[in-house]
Amino acid sequence: MTTFVEEDYFTVYKWDIKNSLSLTQEAHFTLASVISGEGKLISEDTEYSIKLGDHFIIPNQMQSFTIKGNVQLIASHPNSKGGRQRDMESATRQVANV
What's the whole-model pTM score? Predict the structure, then answer.
């Protein structure tokens, strides 16, 4: 896994998978694009085939997942470090408490 960009608002990675990669979802969601090869995205008992040209979202509800195969992906997720994201979450909590 190579980190291309890590900023206040988002992080971008290149996942170069030769056999398998198991991850835990910590962001609100992850966007992924397959840039080479093919494989499977596995979460619990469900498998999804992925191949060159596919784009998909891994939601926060998919807390852990494995990608198997010979596949390269560009993946990105939002970060909560950014002030605006924190302000929006804080405002949402304040409205919910009214």
Answer: 0.76
